[in-house]
Structure to design on (944 residues):
């Protein structure tokens, strides 16, 4: 029978569905194993060959664990909210729900063709009200909770209300937006609105003023990765930094637990380090600086308290509220111009850019350790969100302060004996302190650090700050609270209505609050988010339902929130919902959660290291505090698959225009490189008319050509829909089959490494599967399998493979497994092996990699159940023992020939046989050997 992969794959994909092969339920008699892929977003482009890489890797592992007897949960669903569907809706008028369903259907069709062992009975979609019911529910729980620093857990907000009524907030140790103080009497005298404003300072989900990337033309806040060179990636519209009232999640309250949890999970050291750096724990001191000739004072945070005597200027973040307070009338025009320029730069760009810019505020601050008046500057190298948004600058011992001081001619005062700061700052934290205070000035305070080591000086200064009420010792974190609002339509609605300008939650029993219909998907003419177009978007607190806006009376009927939740909302706790996706009463049943616990193997890309993987860990820790999740960490082991790379093309847009300049002329202009669809580029030459028709914003594009052509730039980078360089896996499946695609993607290289897509090697994998098939069927379709006992050589080849593949799967070294399969099949082919005893075990071993062909051959071998339910073979070391050893025979260290000896042959017998061999006589040439060295199982060296 011929290997007809199209018929075989279609047959088994159909049978898996009919027989519910991959459906799984809780089974206390089996040990569980939970495999999960990071939530895919169903784009209009469908899957490319890079997408299945992680899915195939995790699927191999899931099938392997099932063969080992585990009860394996391997679900799949869709992160269905996203900006692309909304942008398409804006362009075409088609509702995002229709676009999303069409995209999901396309994804599902492609995934099914590749033969994954997903339990589709558990499919979830974040845009399904049945699903986002629990996203809204979790948000309400966060709103009604605060974080107790003493207990290190989320607690009900009602506890605070009761405590405030009796004690005020004296002695309260809770995570908050700003430090405030009030008595019980003051609390009890406040209005309901005033009380709500105070509680907002402590809620885990809260409304707060925060800096955002605002794009007026798109009418929404953009994430940092959606902004390139100060303009939006989609459309090239200007983006500015703007302070807005946004929903936020108090992720920062969990910073220490997020750090501590990293020690309990099996992630790569590099990924853990990335998260540690992102969380950014630092121990230091907060110190108060008074403003000269003013009642104002402000706080700075420093990890280098030992450098207080070297402060020669202060720097404020451009967003700091202090800027307006400290800018003098004489400096106002210059400061305003500077602020206008910095508004166009994202924080990420500011961190990456080392160029020096700044402006003097006109004010001075008094150094509490020296009494000196030091100038207060404003510069975008200081960020508002870290520390206090104000820094003390010690240019002798900080590289960015040093560059700033050099640029603006400010004093650089060294504080370490023998350090040279003539060319660069001395940043090392070792040495003996000097100039603290300087010997030629009258001391301003009774602290001297001179002669101490830097470490001693840090601790001495922190103690002094605390004892003299100059500030406080504090642990700081770089981790920010997460902005949780988006001014978009296609997202989860907030279950929130507004009374007297303050947010209130709709009743939990009324969830889910479903996304309303709108006439337009753009912001309103008055600048409100798209939900502002909804005519039925008001909350009736009596009847507990959504009614028409015209009935809003601010007595019993109130306006609902117009923002929607961000993309990460739906993907933060989805692993829990997969456990119990059809439960209408709870996110997950406690008994079911107790069985599955958390994800044993999580597979996805490294790009989520500081986004999704932080937010989902935070979200899960909150649910753990609520008693919903039984495990504090959601993902026990994480494997980051590399990327399959493609060859991208670029066009170059002249800044603030819709004109595109050809590659070799671009250096004459200020341009922004933009990815272009590789399907409208041929040999790096752009099809101009196709480009104009590609996206609406390019319809009026103009071009500056070279030799009448537009030449595109190119680069090898990740294959991604956003880079428009995709290769469709359907083409590969149609030509070679899904089993070939699965094995070839694993054969390209280690799972964790990125590698370029290259179809040149795919024929070899396809030939391997055909050769594997030929062990069962001859070219004349004769069935070859016999019940004859296996030979030693055949058993050795098989068990060598089983040992290799078992170890490789555990280490995700799938590429070397593919090589081992090829070697084994070649050996068995050369041995003309068609023994059932051998082939059955070979089929099971190959089944995780090539499930379709293995199901077919397992069936041919006479089995009535799926190969998925077989037992993973154990290798036998006895079969791997060598009967004979091939020795290299050397003369004076030079290899001359080889001889075979029994594995247990004695050294004396080996020496005798070597000397007696006629080939030895040629090299001995009648001489008497001085020494004969036998290295067991390796070499014989005769010294003449």
């Amino acid at each position: 029978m011929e290997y007809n992969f199209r018929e075989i794959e279609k047959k088994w994909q159909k049978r898996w569905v009919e027989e519910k092969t991959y459906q799984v339920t809780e089974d206390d008699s089996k040990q569980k194993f939970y495999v999960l892929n990071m939530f895919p977003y169903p784009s209009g482009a469908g899957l490319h060959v890079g997408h299945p890489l992680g899915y195939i890797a995790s699927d191999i592992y899931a099938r392997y664990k099932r063969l080992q007897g585990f009860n394996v949960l391997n679900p799949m669903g869709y992160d269905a909210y996203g900006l692309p569907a909304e942008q398409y809706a804006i362009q075409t008028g088609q509702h995002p729900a229709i676009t999303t369903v069409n995209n999901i259907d396309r994804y599902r069709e492609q995934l099914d063709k590749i033969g994954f062992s997903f339990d589709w009975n558990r499919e979830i979609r974040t845009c399904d009200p049945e699903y986002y019911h629990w996203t809204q529910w979790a948000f309400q729980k966060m709103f009604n909770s605060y974080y107790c620093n003493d207990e290190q857990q989320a607690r009900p907000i009602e506890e605070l209300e009761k405590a405030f009524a009796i004690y005020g907030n004296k002695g309260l140790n809770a995570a908050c937006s700003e430090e405030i103080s009030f008595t019980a009497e003051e609390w009890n005298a406040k209005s309901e609105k005033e009380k709500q404003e105070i509680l907002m300072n402590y809620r885990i989900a809260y409304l707060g003023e925060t800096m955002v990337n605002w794009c007026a033309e798109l009418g929404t806040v953009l994430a940092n990765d959606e902004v390139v060179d100060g303009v939006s990636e989609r459309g090239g519209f200007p983006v500015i930094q703007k302070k807005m009232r946004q929903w936020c999640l108090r992720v920062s309250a969990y910073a220490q637990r997020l750090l501590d949890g990293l020690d309990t999970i099996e992630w790569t050291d590099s990924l853990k380090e990335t998260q540690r750096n992102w969380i950014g724990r630092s121990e230091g001191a907060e110190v108060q600086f008074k403003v000269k000739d003013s009642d104002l004072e402000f706080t700075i945070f420093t990890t280098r308290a030992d450098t207080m005597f070297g402060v020669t200027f202060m720097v404020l973040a451009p967003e700091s509220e202090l800027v307006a307070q400290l800018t003098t009338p004489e400096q106002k025009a210059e400061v305003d111009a500077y602020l206008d320029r910095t508004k166009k730069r994202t924080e990420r760009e500011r961190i990456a850019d080392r160029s020096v810019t700044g402006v003097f505020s006109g004010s001075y601050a008094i150094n509490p350790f020296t009494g000196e008046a030091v100038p207060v500057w404003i510069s975008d190298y200081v960020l508002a969100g870290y520390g206090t948004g104000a820094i003390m600058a010690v240019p002798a011992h900080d590289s960015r302060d040093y560059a700033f001081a050099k640029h603006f001619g400010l004093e650089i005062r060294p504080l370490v004996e023998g350090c040279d700061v003539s060319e660069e700052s001395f940043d090392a934290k070792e040495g003996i302190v000097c100039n603290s205070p300087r010997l030629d000035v009258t001391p301003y305070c009774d602290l001297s650090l001179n002669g101490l080591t830097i470490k001693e000086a840090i601790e001495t200064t922190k103690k002094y700050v605390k004892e003299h009420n100059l500030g406080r010792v504090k642990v700081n974190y770089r981790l920010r609270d997460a902005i949780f609002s988006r001014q978009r339509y296609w997202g989860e609605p907030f279950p929130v209505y507004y009374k007297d300008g303050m947010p209130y939650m709709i009743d939990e029993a009324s969830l889910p609050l479903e996304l309303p219909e709108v006439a337009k998907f753009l912001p309103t003419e008055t600048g409100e988010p798209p939900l502002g177009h909804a005519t039925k978007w008001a909350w009736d607190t009596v009847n507990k339902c959504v009614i028409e806006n015209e009935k809003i009376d601010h007595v019993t009927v109130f306006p609902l929130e117009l923002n929607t939740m961000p993309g990460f909302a739906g993907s933060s706790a989805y692993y829990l919902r997969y456990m119990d996706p059809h439960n209408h009463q709870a996110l997950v049943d406690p008994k079911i959660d107790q069985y599955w616990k958390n994800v044993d193997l999580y597979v996805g890309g490294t790009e989520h290291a500081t986004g999704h993987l932080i937010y989902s860990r935070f979200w899960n820790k909150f649910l753990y505090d609520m008693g919903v999740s039984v495990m504090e960490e959601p993902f026990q082991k994480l494997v980051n698959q590399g990327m399959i790379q493609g060859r991208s093309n670029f066009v170059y847009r002249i800044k603030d225009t819709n004109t595109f300049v050809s590659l070799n002329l671009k250096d004459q202009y200020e341009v922004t490189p933009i990815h272009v669809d590789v399907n409208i580029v041929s040999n790096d030459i752009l099809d101009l008319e196709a480009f104009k028709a590609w996206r609406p914003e390019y319809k009026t594009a103009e071009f500056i050509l070279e030799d009448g052509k537009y030449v595109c730039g190119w680069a090898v980078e990740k294959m991604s829909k956003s880079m428009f360089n995709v290769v469709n896996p359907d083409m590969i499946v149609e030509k070679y089959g899904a089993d070939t695609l699965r094995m070839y993607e694993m054969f390209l290289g280690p799972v964790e490494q990125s590698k370029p897509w290259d179809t040149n090697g795919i024929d070899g994998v396809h030939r391997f599967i055909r050769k594997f098939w030929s062990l069962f069927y001859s070219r004349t379709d004769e069935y070859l399998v016999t019940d004859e006992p296996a030979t030693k050589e055949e058993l050795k080849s098989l068990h060598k493979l089983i040992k290799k593949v078992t170890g490789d799967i555990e280490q995700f070294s799938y590429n070397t497994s593919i090589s081992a399969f090829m070697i084994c099949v070649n050996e068995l082919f050369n041995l003309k092996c068609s023994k059932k005893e051998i082939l059955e075990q070979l089929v099971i071993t190959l089944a995780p990699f090539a499930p379709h062909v293995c199901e077919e051959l397992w069936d041919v071998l006479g089995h009535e159940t799926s190969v998925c339910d077989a037992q993973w073979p154990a290798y036998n070391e006895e079969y791997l023992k060598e009967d004979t050893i091939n020795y290299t025979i050397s003369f004076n260290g030079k290899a001359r020939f080889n001889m075979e000896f029994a594995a247990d042959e004695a050294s004396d017998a080996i020496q005798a046989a070597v000397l007696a061999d006629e080939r030895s006589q040629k090299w001995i040439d009648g001489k008497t050997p001085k020494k004969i060295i036998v290295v067991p199982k390796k070499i014989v060296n005769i010294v003449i």
